[in-house]
Design goal:
This protein is mainly α. It is about 75% helix and about 0% strand. The protein is elongated.
């Protein structure tokens, strides 16, 4: 696998104290899920450790036995989210239907799945932007996910016999994925513009934009 491959176990030990027992790992997972929800409601800076612990059904002491502080908690959450994100991308492109369904359907499904996944972790993205605005270097994992997804799109197109003569296709695909993610995040955090993140029209338009930007829309239309 390329540099998008998750390094979950190694990264986890940087931000969180090791969870050797199943009960400790389950508590960590509850805290991560609770923290994402609290961030969605309050944002990163307004969220308190006590809020996260209460939502997870554990004590503040349990939080600090697992995480050094709230920022370490966020980076542990990011490691977890990045690992799940990469696994979701792999599972999507490994589906045999990607090789047989019309390309417009494949792209629309990709956008729809991406939007649903991002909406499910809205709190993570809200915290990500808040930390970024305070100067924290939080974007490298997101760039790795974008690059990995772009590489899988190029691989898919080549396997489907699409002629990719552009020497800059890798950068173009990366930018196309970033634009797709950016529009979904904007709709999610800032409201419809003009479509809400759940709106099928947004998914169709972003899928069309993806095909057009990669200059394969005519092929996609022909195979629809």
């Amino acid at each position: 696998m390329n540099d998008g491959e998750p390094q979950t176990d190694a990264a986890e030990t940087v931000w969180a104290k090791p969870a050797y027992q199943a009960r400790s790992r389950q508590q960590r997972d509850r805290l991560l899920k609770a923290g994402e929800r609290v961030f969605a409601e309050k944002g990163f800076w307004q969220a308190h450790v006590a809020d996260i612990a209460k939502r997870a059904g554990c004590s503040v002491g349990s939080f600090y036995r697992r995480f050094q502080d709230k920022e370490a908690f966020f980076f542990s959450l990011q490691t977890d989210m990045a690992g799940h994100g990469l696994s979701n991308i792999e599972r999507f492109f490994d589906d045999p239907a990607c090789l047989t369904d019309p390309l417009p359907q494949v792209f629309a499904r990709l956008v729809r799945n991406t939007a649903r996944t991002m909406k499910g972790i809205e709190g993570y993205y809200r915290a990500l932007f808040e930390l970024s605005l305070r100067g924290h270097d939080v974007w490298p994992p997101m760039r790795r996910i974008e690059a990995f997804e772009a590489a899988r799109i190029i691989e898919l197109l080549r396997r489907r016999g699409v002629a990719l003569d552009d020497p800059d296709i890798g950068e173009r695909a990366h930018l196309a994925i970033r634009m797709m993610h950016g529009q979904i995040i904007s709709a999610m955090l800032h409201g419809p513009g003009p479509f809400a993140v759940e709106d099928a029209r947004l998914h169709r338009e972003l899928a069309l934009n993806l095909a057009r930007y990669l200059q394969i829309d005519r092929l996609a239309d022909a195979k629809a």
